[in-house]
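Researcher: We're teaching a course module on how sequence relates to structure. For the next exercise, students receive a sequence and then see the predicted structure as tokens, so they can try to spot secondary structure elements on their own. Here is the exercise chain.
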Amino acid sequence: MIEFLNWFDFSTTDWLISLICGLLIGMAKAGVAGTGIMIVPIMAVAFGGRVSTGIVLPMLIIADIYAVIYYNRFANWKYIVKITPWAVIGIFIALAIGSSVSDEVFRRILSVTVISAIVIMIWRDLRQNVSIPDHWWFAMLLGLAGGFATMIGNAAGPVMAMYLLAMRIPKFTYIGTGAWFFFLVNLFKVPLHVVFWKTITLKTVSFNLMMAPAIIFGVFLGIQIVKIIPEKLYRVLVIGTTIVSAFLLL
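Model: And here is the predicted structure for the students to work with:
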């Protein structure tokens, strides 16, 4: 077992960070709003910008499977079909940019992407009653932005939230539709990471499987946290921590 762990050449801190991120991923899929975006800057600081995206992606897919199974009956495929093609285009734009820049520049792009997503999330919270347009161009813009954000740093959560909220759909439809969107998009990104960025390998997949228990535990932990911590207080803590982590990338 020790020899197997040594294969990854991770420090104790790296393992601790990875386990914490696994917990956060599970918590995010359990409904703890804003938790997932914290993972992006933390993992980028620990493992490098481009490399971290490949490490995190299969971890997200493990959690996506849980979300899809649990919320499948609530998904509305009309909205998924409407935004997904634009998201795919956004993914290829990010693929082209990410393949031609250094890791330092990649981390800066990732940081700006995360901070922009946080700004969107805060704006959405402060303007809960704002009338958001429901037009084809709105789906196009958010689809492109979401595709770019998810490929650069798995950070499309706030963008997708804006789109689904604009559709004025019920809470569980919102969760189920988002779950299927991210599951399909994340699966689509896997071969791109394998072939072009080479950030997903047998070694990283083995690591992801080792993180699966932490992700599953995070799901159950997230359910309990949602019950006992006031949402407003929790969101303030999440946003503050994420902003600090994102600026560390700069």
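Model: If you want an answer key for the exercise: The first helix runs from residue 2 to 6. DSSP finds eleven helices and no strands in the chain.
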